[in-house]
Amino acid sequence: MMQLSTxxxxxxxxxxxxxxxxxxxxxxxxxxAMHALDEFGSVISVRKNAEIWAQxxxxxxxxxxxxxxxxxxxxxEDGRRQISEFLVAGDWLGFDGATIQxxxxxxxADSVLKxxxxxxxxxxxxxxxxxxxxxxxxMSQKLYLAQEHMLTLGRxxxxxxxxxxxxxMAARTPRDRSGMSPLPMNRTDIADYLGLRLETICRVLSRxxxxxxxxxxxxxxxxxxxxxxxxxxxxxxx
Length: 238
Prior knowledge:
A 4-stranded antiparallel sheet has the order 1-8-3-6. Helix 6 (about 185-195) crosses helix 7 (about 200-210). It has about 240 residues and is an alpha+beta fold. It has 2 domains: about 10-20 and about 155-235, Orthogonal Bundle (Arc Repressor Mutant, subunit A); about 30-150, Jelly Rolls (Sandwich). Strand 9 (about 215) and strand 10 form a beta hairpin. The termini are close together. It is about 40% helix and about 20% strand.
């Protein structure tokens, strides 16, 4: 039976590099900026698998996720897709200043969004320094996360990618009463996000479960051995 090393991740990082840090939430915007944005925001509901915008659409709105999960999808010319990001409650999208959407945005699960007309956001940022500064911080963080994801796809093993993904989702989503973190995306979504085959996702998740690092249920997952999972994020399974 496969066993996970209990050696500290700090010690392992001397040989394998530091673990991938959990994805940070967007920086908090000042209270006055929040109030200003909410004056012209409206709440919308999006059903599971519905498209919020298509790749190549002109930018009409910016959004804040109130509940649910959104995936950003890049469609290739040969029909393949790459998921570049999963966004959950509290995350923002469409605030990066682009005029044309380079990815599609789709609902992973039934979701509620706060929608802001892009022209109003631009006008507010031009006259309110707190909104402009907060928007710049969002754009800077988006670039940082994109670089981290490129590192994950280019330099990490399958086991490292999946372990780091689980740690990230656990950090960004609330646990229910049983201690489970939601995992609304299916295994194919995870594979397209991590650049792996579906069979690899299923195999590694099963190995992590058998090793006692995680528990998986229809409602989501829970981390049973965080130290071991953090080691996996910076090393490989044996």
